[in-house]
Amino acid sequence: MVLRLSLQRCLVHPVSALRRHMILTRPASTTPHSTPPGLLRYSPWSKEFLGSLKTRIFLQSAFYAVGIVTAAGLVDSYLFASRTELEEPVLHYASPQGTKLAIEELRATFPRANAVDTDADTLRTYGFSENSYHPASPHSVVVRPTCTSDVVKIVNISRKYRIPITPYSGATSLEGHTSGYPSGSICLDMSGMDQILQINEADSDLVCQSGARWEDINATLKEKGIPLFFPLDPGPGATIGGMIGTGCSGTNAVRYGTARAEWFLNLTAVLPNGEVIKTRRRARKSAAGFDTTKLFIGAEGTLGIVTEVTLRLTPVIPTKVAMAQFPDVEHAVSAVQEILNTPYGPHIQCVELLDDHMMEAINTAGLVDHPYPVEDTLFFKIQGDPTSIKSTSKAVQDIVKKHGSSRFEFASTDQEAEDLWQNRKYALMSTMAANPGTRCWTTDVCVPVSRLPQLVFETKKDLADSGIQSTIVGHVGDGNFHALILFRDDSELQGVSDAVHRLVHRAVALEGTCTGEHGVGVGKKEYLTDELGEGTVELMRVIKRAIDPLNLMNPGKLYPERRKPKAEEFNRPSA
Amino acid sequence: MNSLFKAWGQHGHRQIYLHSGRHLLTPRSLLVHSGIARRLHSSPSLGEHDVQSRAGANNTSGISSSHILLLATSILSGIVGFAVASGLESSTSVKGGSSQDQQFGTPGDFKQAIEELRQAFPSSDAVSTDPEDLRTHGFSDYDYRPGRLHSVVFYPASTEDVVRMVKIATKYKMPVIPYSGATSLEGHIRSHAVGGICVDISGMDRILEIHGIPLFFPLDPAPGATIGGMLSTGCSGTNAVRYGTAKAEWFLNATVVLPSGEVIKTRRRSRKSSAGFDTTKLFIGAEGTLGIVTEVTIRLAPLLPTTVAVVQFPDLRKATEAVIEVMNQGVGIQCVEAVDDVFMAATNKFGMSARKWPEKDSLFLKFQGPTQASIQETAKIVKKIVEKHGATGFELARNAKEADDLWADRKNANYSGMALLEGAKGWGTDVCVPVSKLPELVYETKKDLAQIGITSTIVGHVGDGNFHALLLFRNEKEYRIAKEAVHRMVHRAIALDGTCTGEHGVGVGKKKYLVEELGAGTVELMKTIKRAIDPLGLFNPGKLYPDDDETDNKPGV
């Protein structure tokens, strides 16, 4: 009752009430105690306040202090918290003026010729890719470091001026990983950092810079007569840094696993804060905590720049190449499944599926001496000592026959084996060569092996129904396959893009992944939440934010935006 | 303009706010402090009466000056308050270690948490505070660091149970310590000093789906280990030389309850994927500090015929050299285990073995191949190579029974090691180095142990450069000597480009070596990730991550 009265008074005559109460002096003992006006005794603004002047000042100040702190806190959270919530704080990147200053500083830091390149053609070539049709922008500058400390300097300049960094080396990306950022970006061309630093034959490992090509590494080992090799074999021209960034694999994955296995013993990375870390030492295994090496594998340069790597090597083992034709993909895949689960499985180094269109393309491209039968075909690479190869070949032959294969033949000579394998490795080139005047959209998905026939069957049907020409090659032992989809002009591009979209959804629905080995880049971002779930993607974002709070490392790649992206326009490089 | 622009560029919006905010505040808060001091100094001389009368004078002269005084005071106190508050905030965020006590709830909170757990899981055996239960979960026979009691043991039956438990733990800020096989050697499952919920997942042991049959899971750590524990320590075993470790591709995906209570499945079931960095790998070796793994899809490998051979060498250096050459042949080696002369003596003494072994450094080899013919071929190649390196007494099992017997002698390492010294306890520890450095490490370690008079056996997964020492001790004094010897051994391994633990994990026992091994930057990266995922620090606190002030000279906890 009393409370309501005093409140009423304050509400009805707020100003006069305040005036009356905002008196700092205490009217001392003159106030009659007999009529206490309720709670006002406790209000330091009130005349009836019981405490001393000091108490009065203290209480009033405390009240205002709390008010100010609360207000400041509210303003702070309102103005700034929303900014951290934004997926891509685009606003904070450098203006064109800032970019210019950054380039000046880069030139001053790296005075040697060609280290800092702003030639318009170069920027365009580096920003766009011949291999993909995703939205892209030219870079602002291309910088060519030669050592880890160069990279640190570049990362520091990027942070100082707030310019995104995109690492680049082999440029074999198919999903737009190396494209420029619209507001300007530094393209870090790592391909000059290609030195092999150390070969430890007894430990079967090798230390190299991240710009080294896997083919060059294997060639060097062969030249030096070291009977070891590095078994990850993605597209020709790929470099170690890019292979880590995408979490690559290749035809050997069925026997040796992918980049996510234990082929990278450690790596040296420059973090977004400019710090250089070496993720671990050179022991083949370690249980010392979760392995931060793995964090960079598949991170597509969004968590740091890998500069040096220790690779594990494996012995070179004699191989033999064989080929078998099947009535359809389903028979081929079931044969592979059976072979891999027998004790002979470990002797299969590769098993590749090429569909009838692909075989036809190889014939048409004229890369072989005599034409192959135009049927769904498996290429096997069998490894082991002569006894094992013999027994494995026998077992394979029996099994493929059981699954309806009409033919099984070995490459008669090493040269033929190599040619056969080359044809598989250069599937993209043969496909293009067989269809002059067309362009090619390459994509890959991966599903549990048993689901592969269904996926291939439905995809081929879908493509045929849409009137799209394509070839299919698959690392069938892993359930991974690539579709090379051909088109002639922009009018066909949309149809191709839609077909790829359907293909990815089909794979994800079959408990598979939107990309088996090409990575996410900009091309597959939109499928990531579908595949991994919002929780896992958010975990990835949490890690990204923790390591790169300014979002300077390859922004726009890998992590899907939270909002549904609008229909994107497909910019293409002018041919 | 230029310099202004640079400043802008250096700090950026958010940073500028924080930094400049702090820069502005610091001088001002200093000002405020000095202002308070002056007032305090001056007030005794003025006396209370003076102040009162002056204020009274203000009152008579008009209300506006009292307003100004009031306003000034309140702004000042506001600034003081803000400065104090932000000062507090920054100090707590900078040194998380010192605020350890506020990090967790009070004993009263914990009591309430247990009560709430009981209400959430009314079935009698889901939540246990039975002293015997607490004791078995808090103390380990494998760990000679002092054990501690957990506050409560919780037995979930499903992922949802774990989620509900995590929510309660978060509410009361109670540490969560996952537990299952209890084979840890480095104190992973020890309770935290403030207590905590021990989550015993050993009941969640159903195999949910199998795709494919004449197959096996090749990771083979110690008997009794569970998948959750194997994943969390990043385990391996004798098969690692052929199949790799837990950090390879055997775990296709994991379902994890994050500290936020959210359940994620790290990926789908395809054998490979390049869809971003693999969050599965984040939990492998994280020792339960980033989340609790509740379901896992594991990849299987075909089961191959095997056989076993044993061979003696003049010393371990020769044996290692032979192994390196054998490994580089690419023949079918599934395991290659080195044991030292003391181990062979122990095996003879243990008396389980059917035979008397020559007491020399030896290799146990397990060959695999698709057919008996190919295994024989492998054996032939291996025999030739090892004999080139001075091996003697190459003995190949003639049948499966003999192979099992031979292998059992290696597998009994722990028991036979203990047989060497009556009434002794054993401290098992492991380190790993690049294979070529193994002889040096073993040689130095054996010399060291001989000098200090500690009996120990050495068995090594020599194909990986990994070895285990079982140090025997009978009393407190010998325990301390053994502990120092382990300390030196770890330093030796790290100096040889190796690791403080090849397969046992970090736990509390090895965390002081982590900075030396990985560098401060890498450890800080790990902590950054830990903080980002578990900001309250409730998941298995005190394990894995070295404290900021932890140096390796301080004795272990």
From TrEMBL, chain A:
<keyword id="KW-0809">Transit peptide</keyword>
<dbReference type="InterPro" id="IPR016164">
    <property type="entry name" value="FAD-linked_Oxase-like_C"/>
</dbReference>
<dbReference type="InterPro" id="IPR006094">
    <property type="entry name" value="Oxid_FAD_bind_N"/>
</dbReference>
<dbReference type="InterPro" id="IPR036318">
    <property type="entry name" value="FAD-bd_PCMH-like_sf"/>
</dbReference>
<dbReference type="GO" id="GO:0071949">
    <property type="term" value="F:FAD binding"/>
</dbReference>
<keyword id="KW-0560">Oxidoreductase</keyword>
<dbReference type="GO" id="GO:1903457">
    <property type="term" value="P:lactate catabolic process"/>
</dbReference>
<dbReference type="GO" id="GO:0005739">
    <property type="term" value="C:mitochondrion"/>
</dbReference>
<protein>
    <recommendedName>
        <fullName>D-lactate dehydrogenase (cytochrome)</fullName>
        <ecNumber>1.1.2.4</ecNumber>
    </recommendedName>
</protein>
<dbReference type="InterPro" id="IPR016171">
    <property type="entry name" value="Vanillyl_alc_oxidase_C-sub2"/>
</dbReference>
<dbReference type="GO" id="GO:0004458">
    <property type="term" value="F:D-lactate dehydrogenase (cytochrome) activity"/>
</dbReference>
<dbReference type="InterPro" id="IPR016166">
    <property type="entry name" value="FAD-bd_PCMH"/>
</dbReference>
<dbReference type="GO" id="GO:0008720">
    <property type="term" value="F:D-lactate dehydrogenase (NAD+) activity"/>
</dbReference>
<keyword id="KW-0496">Mitochondrion</keyword>
<dbReference type="Pfam" id="PF01565">
    <property type="entry name" value="FAD_binding_4"/>
</dbReference>
<keyword id="KW-0274">FAD</keyword>
<keyword id="KW-0285">Flavoprotein</keyword>
<dbReference type="InterPro" id="IPR016169">
    <property type="entry name" value="FAD-bd_PCMH_sub2"/>
</dbReference>
<feature type="region of interest" description="Disordered">
    <location>
        <begin position="555"/>
        <end position="575"/>
    </location>
</feature>
<dbReference type="Pfam" id="PF02913">
    <property type="entry name" value="FAD-oxidase_C"/>
</dbReference>
<feature type="compositionally biased region" description="Basic and acidic residues">
    <location>
        <begin position="559"/>
        <end position="575"/>
    </location>
</feature>
<dbReference type="InterPro" id="IPR004113">
    <property type="entry name" value="FAD-bd_oxidored_4_C"/>
</dbReference>
From TrEMBL, chain B:
<dbReference type="GO" id="GO:0005739">
    <property type="term" value="C:mitochondrion"/>
</dbReference>
<dbReference type="GO" id="GO:0071949">
    <property type="term" value="F:FAD binding"/>
</dbReference>
<dbReference type="GO" id="GO:0004458">
    <property type="term" value="F:D-lactate dehydrogenase (cytochrome) activity"/>
</dbReference>
<dbReference type="InterPro" id="IPR006094">
    <property type="entry name" value="Oxid_FAD_bind_N"/>
</dbReference>
<dbReference type="InterPro" id="IPR016166">
    <property type="entry name" value="FAD-bd_PCMH"/>
</dbReference>
<keyword id="KW-0809">Transit peptide</keyword>
<comment type="similarity">
    <text>Belongs to the FAD-binding oxidoreductase/transferase type 4 family.</text>
</comment>
<protein>
    <recommendedName>
        <fullName>D-lactate dehydrogenase (cytochrome)</fullName>
        <ecNumber>1.1.2.4</ecNumber>
    </recommendedName>
</protein>
<dbReference type="Pfam" id="PF01565">
    <property type="entry name" value="FAD_binding_4"/>
</dbReference>
<dbReference type="InterPro" id="IPR016169">
    <property type="entry name" value="FAD-bd_PCMH_sub2"/>
</dbReference>
<dbReference type="GO" id="GO:0008720">
    <property type="term" value="F:D-lactate dehydrogenase (NAD+) activity"/>
</dbReference>
<dbReference type="GO" id="GO:1903457">
    <property type="term" value="P:lactate catabolic process"/>
</dbReference>
<dbReference type="InterPro" id="IPR016164">
    <property type="entry name" value="FAD-linked_Oxase-like_C"/>
</dbReference>
<keyword id="KW-0496">Mitochondrion</keyword>
<feature type="domain" description="FAD-binding PCMH-type">
    <location>
        <begin position="144"/>
        <end position="329"/>
    </location>
</feature>
<dbReference type="InterPro" id="IPR036318">
    <property type="entry name" value="FAD-bd_PCMH-like_sf"/>
</dbReference>
<keyword id="KW-0285">Flavoprotein</keyword>
<dbReference type="InterPro" id="IPR016171">
    <property type="entry name" value="Vanillyl_alc_oxidase_C-sub2"/>
</dbReference>
<keyword id="KW-0560">Oxidoreductase</keyword>
<keyword id="KW-0274">FAD</keyword>
<dbReference type="InterPro" id="IPR004113">
    <property type="entry name" value="FAD-bd_oxidored_4_C"/>
</dbReference>
<dbReference type="Pfam" id="PF02913">
    <property type="entry name" value="FAD-oxidase_C"/>
</dbReference>
